[in-house]
Structure to design on (286 residues):
């Protein structure tokens, strides 16, 4: 039992972790594949030393992987071997001191100005796409997961707010939902969409095919939203940027942080001040 190979131990660990989402399992399978390829499918976990663990880190770097990818691969390795120590399969964690910083590439950041946002909205050829762009850039919602799960019943017109259900954070107690202000410029677009919606329409983004394609057993994915959004960007006569939807959300958080305390802004956008400072807030031209 103790001498089962690394590959079977990795599979056993992933199957045991029913508490993580499908998207996380996908990342873990990728990390497992790297570990098996480097150490060998039949390698026994107890034979992997701290030196070998560091060799694995060097191997990831030599493959030219992005710093964030390397960080995630090593993070999973530390988790897996830590769990192995708790089950007395190995005396200590060989990856305990092996890590890599997840650095942010500034070339992948792009602040979308108000003027550019107007051009994007004007370039949308359907109400659904105006809503998608508005919820992402003005509401600061995650796209596609939060944008496509927003329902009309979640919009409180009288109190000037709407409730966001967050598939990404719902497994954290108290993080299942959050309330976001119905900002005036967003309200106008949602009122337009509400007036155009057929009776009985449940979701704010009415096209059901988007949800079917995006909400998969392995987690949310962009389906064909990126391809279609690139067409909107082209019609707006703008150059595409690397992280299309993330930049819309990050631009809104940066904008709001100028006017409101950071703990209020992050409560609206569903992250933390630490995450906002590291992954979202940008230094703009002005």
């Amino acid at each position: 039992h103790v001498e089962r190979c690394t590959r079977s131990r990795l599979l056993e660990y992933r199957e045991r972790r029913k508490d993580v989402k499908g998207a996380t399992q996908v990342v873990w399978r990728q990390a497992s594949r790297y570990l098996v390829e480097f150490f060998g499918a039949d390698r026994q976990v107890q034979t992997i030393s701290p030196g070998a663990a560091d060799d694995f880190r060097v191997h990831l770097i030599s493959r030219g992987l992005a710093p964030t990818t390397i960080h995630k691969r090593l993070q999973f390795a530390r988790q897996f071997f830590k769990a192995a120590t708790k089950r007395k399969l190995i005396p200590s964690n060989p990856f305990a001191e092996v890590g890599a910083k997840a650095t942010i590439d500034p070339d992948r950041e792009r602040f979308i100005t108000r003027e550019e946002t107007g051009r994007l909205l004007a370039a949308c050829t359907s109400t659904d796409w105006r809503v998608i762009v508005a919820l992402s850039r003005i509401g600061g919602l995650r796209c596609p997961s939060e944008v496509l799960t927003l329902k009309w019943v979640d919009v409180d017109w009288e109190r000037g707010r709407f409730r966001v259900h967050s598939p990404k954070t719902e497994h954290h107690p108290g993080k299942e939902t959050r309330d976001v202000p119905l900002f005036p410029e967003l309200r106008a677009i949602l009122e337009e969409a509400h007036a155009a919606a057929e009776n009985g329409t449940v979701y704010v983004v009415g096209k059901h095919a988007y949800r079917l394609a995006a909400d998969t057993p392995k987690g949310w994915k962009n389906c064909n939203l990126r391809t279609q959004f690139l067409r909107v960007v082209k019609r707006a006569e703008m150059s595409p940027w690397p992280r299309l939807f993330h930049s819309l959300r990050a631009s809104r958080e940066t904008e709001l942080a100028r006017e409101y305390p950071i703990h209020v802004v992050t409560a609206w956008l569903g992250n933390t001040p630490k995450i906002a400072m590291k992954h979202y807030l940008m230094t703009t031209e002005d």
